[in-house]
């Protein structure tokens, strides 16, 4: 029997960092040492009090169905925690628990976007934004960033030029993956003002809101006119080192959140109950492990930034957020006679074992985009291996006769 898949399957994208991970795993299986900078996973254990709370919940029989929007104690704890951090008064009705942060993207789009309507999303950016927009029949319209002396800023001219009467949603990822871009007060206020003027809904991806090395997180939902049009994508993956537990939430105005919870009924009935009880402990328990994790990440960041900036033809800023670096390697590639950033990536991997993704893994480059970037995640690699791997990369980049990648 000949299979014929639905047309929309052709519009479904993927998260290409996992493909790079498969290459790295294949290399490692041959006995070659790989330095894993490719995936934003954490090589730190979930905080012990969270683990113990999950075990206790299982032993206490918290293994059955639970309310579709999530257990009340978690929704209340999350409403309090998120509300306090953002200057908002929230309650449990503002929270819908999800099986990770990623489902919030698709459910938000399904709840608000009709086929043929436009959604603005960051490019480079998390590839699932574009995938979900296309899959559900929307028109995906990317906006970019401008490299500055201190990092990356939103390309406002491009954002404003892209908005039409058909534009319904803007996706905003402050503390940005992959560039680590962090909006200052002026930039965030300008974006909020534009969204109010153009009557846009906003998906505020705040996965890295708490991965800050100084200062406190800021959210666009806190600004005038934004609460009623904004949903926060929240995840427990980063702050509590719970990437594999698959727990997150949609947080925002009750009319939108109630619709998102309707998808919960149809998709997964409810989120794993004992994992939710573990998250309650994470939110209400001691924060020592969170602070300790940030100290470790900051030390890794500083080592990686210093080594990258010591490489001929490589430059990168020292970001205050996330656990990603997005160095400009344009000059280094030119010195090696390479014009394709994918060829550069494979050369580094083949010759040194250093595995990373590139700008091209986070969206199609814009026409005329001539600067070349790679992304390194330092969340899953210890500082000794950061030094060892990047020194090998430095030696190769500065070699006069580097071998070509296969």
Fold and architecture overview:
There is one protein chain. The chain is 40% helix and 14% strand. With 406 residues, it is α/β, with parallel strands linked by helices. The protein has a 7-stranded mixed beta sheet with strand order 2-10-9-8-7-3-4, sandwiched between helices. A 3-stranded antiparallel beta sheet has the order 11-14-13, covered by helices on one side. α4 runs parallel beside α5, α4 (102-112) packs across α8 (254-267) and α10 (288-309) runs parallel beside α13 (383-397). The longest helix is centred in the C-terminal third of the chain and has 22 residues, at 288-309.
Low-confidence stretches: none
Number of helices: 13
CATH architecture field of the largest domain? 3-Layer(aba) Sandwich
Q: What kind of sheet is the major sheet?
A: 7 strands, mixed
In the sheet with the most strands, the strands line up as: 2-10-9-8-7-3-4
Distance between the termini: 39 Å
Write the layout of secondary structure elements.
Layout: H1 17-29, E1 35-36, H2 48-59, H3 72-86, E2 95-98, H4 102-112, E3 118-122, H5 127-135, E4 139-143, E5 145-148, E6 151-154, H6 156-162, E7 167-172, H7 185-197, E8 201-205, E9 230-235, E10 248-251, H8 254-267, H9 273-284, H10 288-309, E11 324-325, H11 330-335, H12 341-352, E12 354-355, E13 357-358, E14 374-377, H13 383-397
């Amino acid at each position: 029997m000949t299979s014929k898949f639905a047309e929309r399957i052709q519009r479904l994208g993927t998260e290409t960092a996992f493909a790079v991970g498969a290459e790295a795993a294949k290399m490692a299986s041959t006995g070659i040492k790989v330095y894993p900078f490719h995936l934003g996973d954490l090589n730190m254990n979930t905080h012990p009090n969270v683990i113990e709370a999950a075990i206790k919940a299982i032993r206490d029989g918290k293994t059955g169905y639970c309310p579709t929007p999530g257990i009340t104690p978690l929704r209340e704890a999350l409403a309090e925690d998120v509300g306090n951090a953002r200057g908002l008064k929230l309650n449990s009705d503002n929270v819908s628990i999800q099986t990770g942060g990623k489902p919030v993207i698709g459910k938000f789009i399904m709840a608000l976007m009709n086929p043929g309507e436009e959604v603005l999303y960051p490019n480079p950016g998390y590839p699932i934004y574009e995938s979900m927009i296309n899959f559900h029949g929307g028109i995906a319209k990317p906006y970019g960033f401008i490299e500055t002396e201190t990092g990356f800023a939103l390309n406002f001219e491009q954002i404003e030029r892209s908005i039409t009467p058909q534009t319904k949603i803007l996706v905003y990822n402050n503390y940005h993956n992959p560039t680590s871009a962090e909006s200052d007060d002026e930039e965030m206020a300008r974006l909020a003002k534009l969204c109010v003027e153009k009557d846009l809904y906003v998906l505020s991806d705040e996965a890295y809101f708490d991965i800050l090395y100084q200062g406190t997180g800021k959210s666009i939902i806190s600004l005038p006119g934004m609460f009623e049009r904004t949903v926060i994508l929240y995840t427990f993956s980063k702050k509590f080192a719970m990437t594999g537990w698959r727990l997150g939430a949609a947080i925002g105005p009750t009319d939108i959140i109630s619709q998102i919870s309707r998808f919960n009924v149809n998709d997964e009935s409810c989120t794993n109950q004992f994992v939710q009880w573990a998250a309650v402990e994470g939110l209400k328990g001691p924060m020592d492990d969170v602070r300790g994790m940030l100290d470790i990440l900051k030390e890794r960041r500083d080592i990686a930034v210093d080594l990258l900036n010591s490489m001929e033809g490589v430059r990168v800023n020292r970001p205050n957020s996330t656990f990603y670096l997005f160095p400009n390697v344009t000059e280094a590639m030119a010195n090696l006679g390479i014009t394709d950033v994918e060829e550069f990536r494979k050369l580094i991997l083949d010759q040194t074992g250093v595995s990373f993704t590139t700008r091209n893994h986070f969206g199609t480059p814009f026409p005329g985009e001539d600067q070349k970037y790679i992304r390194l995640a330092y969340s899953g690699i210890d500082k000794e291996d950061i030094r060892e791997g990047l020194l090998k990369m430095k030696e190769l980049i500065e070699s006069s006769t580097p071998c070509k990648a296969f």
